[in-house]
Amino acid sequence: MLAAAGSAVGLGNIWKFPYITGENGGGAFVLVYLVCIALIGLPIMMTEILIGRRGRQSPINTMAELAREYHVSRAWRLLGWAGVIAGFLILSYYSVIAGWALAYVFEAGGGAFAGGDPDAIGQIFADLTGSPGTLLFWHSLFMVMTVVVVARGVRNGLERAVSFLMPALFVLLVVMVGYAIIEGDFARGLDFLFTPDIKKVFFRCEMVDGAEHCGYTMAPLLTAMGHAFFTLSLGMGAIMVYGSYLPRNASISGSALMIVAADTLVALLAGMAIFPIVFANGLEPGAGPGLIFQTLPIAFGQMPGGTLFGALFFILLTFAAWTSAISLVEPAVAYFVENQGWSRVRATLLVGVICWVVGIGTVLSFNLWSGEEFQIGGKTLFDLLDYLTANIMLPLGGLVMAIFVGWIADKSLARDELRLPEKTFRVWWVVTSIVAPIGVFIVFLNAVGLLSFVE
Ligand code: PHE
């Protein structure tokens, strides 16, 4: 369970949640995200854990075995394969962003933020992302860190580390929120995060051929739902792998609830730490992926002991990213070890090298390939990878899991694993097999424009 919590809590909570909330107008977006967490994320978390605990193998083999058990096509194991590919793609860019956190350990520790001048701090970030060589260096270092841990197959170490580093990260975030209350524009930050203003989120104006077009867009729905999957590590097998280690007597619903609650709390704390600083310093909430790297250092530069505190914060952020990265490669490594008879070292190295190479595309997305001529539909390669994985692959994977457990396998599968009181079980079944799949489906329809009402 701790390992799963370590997988869930990561850059998604502290880096991605604040920046996409800022880009998508705040309150109403957060509300949609929370609804997705409760109605889709939690039931699918339970579903993925229970599949894992029943199968007790790599996701590919688990799906093959469950398909055999319920006399359905072996093609269900393709779900496992899709997860392996999603994991590769996510890790390729995840490692680049984790590299930023790693670089900031040294920036903070070296006193680069002293004084907390927003312009100077913005320049530090611009210098970092503008340099392909520097980004490549930190991306490589993070990749090596990940490969080393996965290759050695540390499991006990992972849980022990999570059990004290996660509370530490939590305490640091609370201190940051304290700083935001005292020095930031806390009222405006809270208002931005928690007052739902439909128009601010779903009404957009765009310039098309020199003319302004305004209308409603449903795009933030997909972003919010995709993020619910991403932040909970759902839909690609990471949680399935950890579910396979969950003891028989542990409660799946209790574990899922704890993981979801912890993950959501960390994201909201990060938001409450960041937006008051954004508004107090006249920064843009929609600044994009650099948001936390341009705002939190202002606080570190101004607070007493900020050099040490800032370094510690980025160490813990790197660690949170690390435990998530480990879970991104587990499904693939488990498969190569089980089916191909490879050593863990060999399997991990292969995965690491592929992700490292693909990650170079993300490195370049922030500098040499950031120009319009390298974009597709206004998206850089990094944006595309993020969109394809978080908004499409993970929700699809989760949808397939829910359909498998809800409709394909015998109901006794979920009943035996969850061991809920019958009434609670029925509610769970309705939410998982009907509400969540329909929700995902409707959001997808919106995204392809079938249900959006522009102008
Ligand atoms: N949940 C992780 C985060 O929030 C990212 C992740 C996604 C990890 C999918 C594993 C699988 O940072």
Task: Give an overview of the whole structure.
This protein has a two-stranded antiparallel ribbon with strand order 1-2. The protein is built from 19 helices and two strands. The longest helix has 35 residues, at 306-340. A hairpin with a 2-residue loop joins strand 1 (203-208) and strand 2 (211-216). Helix 14 (291-302) packs antiparallel against helix 15 (306-340). By secondary structure, the protein is mostly helical. It starts with a helix and ends in an 8-residue tail after the last helix. It is globular and about 65 Å long. The mean pLDDT is 94. The chain binds phenylalanine (PHE). Residues 7-8, 10-13, 90, 230-231, 233, 236, 238, 324, 327-328 line the site of phenylalanine.
How big is the Rg? 21 Å
Which shape, going by the Cα principal axes? globular
| Cofactors, ions and other ligands in the entry | phenylalanine
* Beta-strand share of residues: under 5%
Total number of strands: 2
Helix content class: over 70%
> How do the SSEs run, as a string of H and E?
HHHHHHHHHHEEHHHHHHHHH
Q: Kindly state the mean pLDDT as a whole number?
A: 94
* Category by helix and strand content: mainly alpha
The number of helical runs is 19
Q: Stretches where pLDDT falls below 50 for ≥5 residues?
A: none
**Head-to-tail CA distance between termini:** 47 Å
Largest sheet: 2 strands, antiparallel
* Strand numbers in spatial order across the main sheet: 1-2
